[in-house]
Structures are given as structure tokens and as C-alpha cells.
Amino acid sequence: MMSERILIVRLGSLGDIVHTLPVISALKRAMPHSQIDWIVDERNQAILELTQGLNRLIVLPTRAKSIIGTWKILRELRQQHYDAALDLQGLMKSAVVARVSGAKRIIGFSREHLRESAARLFYTEVCAPSNKPHVIDKNLSGAAALGADVTLKEFPISVPASAKPAELRSKLGLQPSTDYVLLNPGAAWPNKRWLPARFGELASWIKSHHNLGCGVLWGPGEQSLAEEVVAFSNGTAVIAPRTTIGDLVALIKDARLVVSGDTGPMHIAAAVETAIVGIYGPTDPLRNGPWAPGDLTISRFSDCGCHHRRRCGAAQWCLESIPVGDVIDAVEQRLQIVRDNE
């Protein structure tokens, strides 16, 4: 019999959580009446509050709060009597949480697919990812271990009502429902950030060739980076409004195109089926990139000497070798695909 009380353990980060959302849909298709709970780091709970199909969202306090409070939450997990806990993060921390839940089956990735190999000690069984390279397929192997069909990639995200798209259009001097483009220069890893001057030059080209205004996204600590892009845009770009995660989802869903590095907003764009041009350096777009047939990436992963590192330690930074012209060509091609599909 298929397990029907299931705990998903994926504590963070934003993009990684988005890549895990199809697991909910796969499990619900296989077991419509199942109880699916998710435990998440409090810093990443907002995206899951927009997710359909979860029975319960358990928020683990990981900031400066009492250890007693954290253990109280973990003890409460045991009272749910889970049939299975899926550790889809592969860290010692997430594996311990899965084990402490008291679930009958503790399922995680095989050792070669773990971020911290010692996590394997806490599992009762492992799921075997397919030979497909994308991390979404890796995550779906957890659902497959519970008997779910994982051929579809469905993202159960609800797009909330938000005033931010209208606010951005107003800042750009656009009429309601007029298209706009979003540029996302930020990323948690400095190694993933394409140069602000080139984003600015791209915004200027988009305006002059397609008459589309550009909003520059920014998150905590990134406002000055967005201001740099605007300063290099010759007045064609504006800073996007301050957003919650819900506002960000609405803003991205309403955009004509998103141009971004490998980071959360780009993965949200892929999940809500907004057109994308991705810019990749230290990470592999075959693993982390957009998956829609029309989406495009410019990648230097094969030339990068600092794979999966936050900061570049090579003599030549790989993203610096991506000229504006390459991104312009990809934007032109992606916008044409959008027009052809209308």
C-alpha cells in the first residue's frame, strides 16, 4: 500500500524549494487523499504559503531563537505518525530532521547524490535518481519511491493578487496591461552575477529595438546593484518596487520576459511559465536551468574554473566573457518565440 502520511524535508533555499514543488503534484496525483506536510526554514516559508496541495506547513525557526522551541517542533512531528519522510535536501541537518520525525520510512538520495554523504546514515532506504540531469528529476525520484508517476512536472504555485505590476508600469510610464521585461542582476553567490553595466546596456537595447521598458529586480542587500543597472541604462530601466515573495511571483508572472542568472527569481519564472533568458557561469544549466523548450541560456559552465563556488578564484571570471551581444541575440530569439506562440 502506498504511504499516505508524508513529510517533505526541504529547508531551503528559494530556488531549491521551487525545484522541489513538482513532488507535491506527483504525490497528489498518485494519492489524492494523502496528507502531505512540509518542514521548511522560516526564511523560506513564504513561497510555500503560495503552494497548493500541502496539508500543513511546519516552520523551523533557524534564526536567533531558543533551541527548546526548535526541539518542541521536532517532537510534534512524531505525533503525526508519518508513513514516510522524504529528505530532498541531502544535508546532515535535513537528514536528522527526517529521522527525528519518527516516520516509518526515511527516504533520501543515494550517497553519490548527497551534498553531505554522512546523511545516508539516517535513511532507512534510498531513492535512485534517473539519468536525467535536471535537479527537478532528481527530486521527483523521491515521489517515485512512493509509487508516483513522475513524468509530468507540475508546479502548484498560486499567483496572488498584487499591486506591484501596476506600480512598475506606472514607474515605467506604461499603460495598464502593457508588456515589460524584468532584469535580475542579483544572486546570493557573487560568482553568478553578470556585470551591472551589461545589464544596463541590454535594457537600453531592449527599449530601442522592442519598445519594452525594463524593471530591475532586487532583494535584500541588492538595491545598490539594481541602481547600478539603472544608471547604465540611459534612462530606459527603473528599479522594481520592493516586493514580498507573493509580489515577486505576481510581478514575474505578468512579465513578457525575465533575464537572470541562476537564482530564485529565475526559477520562479520557469515555474509560472514566463519566458526566460538565463545567464550561467559556475553552475550547469542542464541541471539548474529553465526547462521550457523555448527558454534559452548563455552558459560558460564548460569553461568555468570555479564550479559551484560562491566566488571566482580563477584568473579569468567566466561570466565576464559573456558579451552583451550574446545576450541580445538570445533575447531577440526568445521574444520571437513568444510572438510566434501568441
Describe this structure in words.
With 342 residues, the protein is of the alpha/beta class. It has helices at 14-20, 22-30, 45-48, 67-78, 92-100, 135-144, 164-172, 196-210, 223-231, 245-253, 264-271, 285-288, 324-340; strands spanning 5-9, 35-41, 56-60, 84-87, 105-109, 125-127, 180-184, 213-216, 237-239, 257-261, 276-280, 296-299. It has two domains: 5-144, Glycogen Phosphorylase B (Rossmann fold, 3-Layer(aba) Sandwich), CATH 3.40.50; 164-340, Glycogen Phosphorylase B (Rossmann fold). The protein is 36% helix and 16% strand.
CATH fold descriptor of the largest domain: Rossmann fold
Tell me, what's the shape? Answer: globular
* Poorly predicted ranges: none
Order of helices and strands: EHHEHEHEHEEHHEHEHEHEHEHEH
> Proportion of β residues?
15-25%
Supply the helix-strand structural class.
alpha/beta
Subcellular location: Cell inner membrane
Protein name: Lipopolysaccharide heptosyltransferase 1
Pfam family, one: Glyco_transf_9
GO biological process, one term: lipopolysaccharide core region biosynthetic process
Task: Describe the structure using short key phrases.
2 domains; 342 residues; single chain; six-stranded parallel beta sheet; alpha/beta; Rossmann fold
